[in-house]
Amino acid sequence: MSNIFSGGSHDLDLSNGATAVFIDVLMLAVSGLTSEDWDFRFAALLTLQDQNVMGRGAVGFDLAEFDWGATERERARAKDFVLRATALAPY
After folding, report:
1. In whole angstroms, what is the distance from residue 87 CA to residue 77 CA?
2. Distances (CA, A) of 12 to 16, 66, 75, 85
3. Mean pLDDT for each 10-residue chunk of the chain (91 residues)?
4. 4: closest CA among 28, 25, 18?
5. CA spacing 20 to 30 A to 83: which of 2, 7, 23, 77?
6. How far apart, in Å, are the Cα atoms of 50 and each of 5, 57, 74?
7. Contact (CB, 8 A) for 6 and 14
């Protein structure tokens, strides 16, 4: 089985092993940046992708379905947080 992570018109289809590595690396980057409520909610979403908890081949999410904030400023800050986290992750 595989896991699909979506954002806009792009999908990232990962094997179970690749998903485990992807989430572990991204969680390390996110954990060093969290400071606001939104950051902690995003980190919680990532922890739900732990296949030891949810089951192998049963995780994934679409970024469009996540609450990015009610205002343009909140959405911009959330996007910046995710971009900073992915820039820090040592892929």
Report:
1. 15
2. 12, 16, 22, 17
3. 77 81 84 90 82 64 82 94 79 53
4. 18
5. 2
6. 14, 10, 27
7. no
DSSP, res 72: H
Torsional sign, CA 45, 51, 52, 55? positive
Residue 52, C-beta contacts closer than 8 angstroms, at least 6 positions apart: none
- Helix, strand, coil in percent for the chain, rounding step 5: 55, 15, 25
pTM (2 decimals)?
Answer: 0.69
Strand partners, 61: 5
Among 14, 9, 29, smallest CA distance to 59 is for 14
Residues with Cβ within 8 Å of 58's Cβ and at least 6 positions away in sequence, in order, are 1, 3, 51
Tokens standing for 33? 């940046």
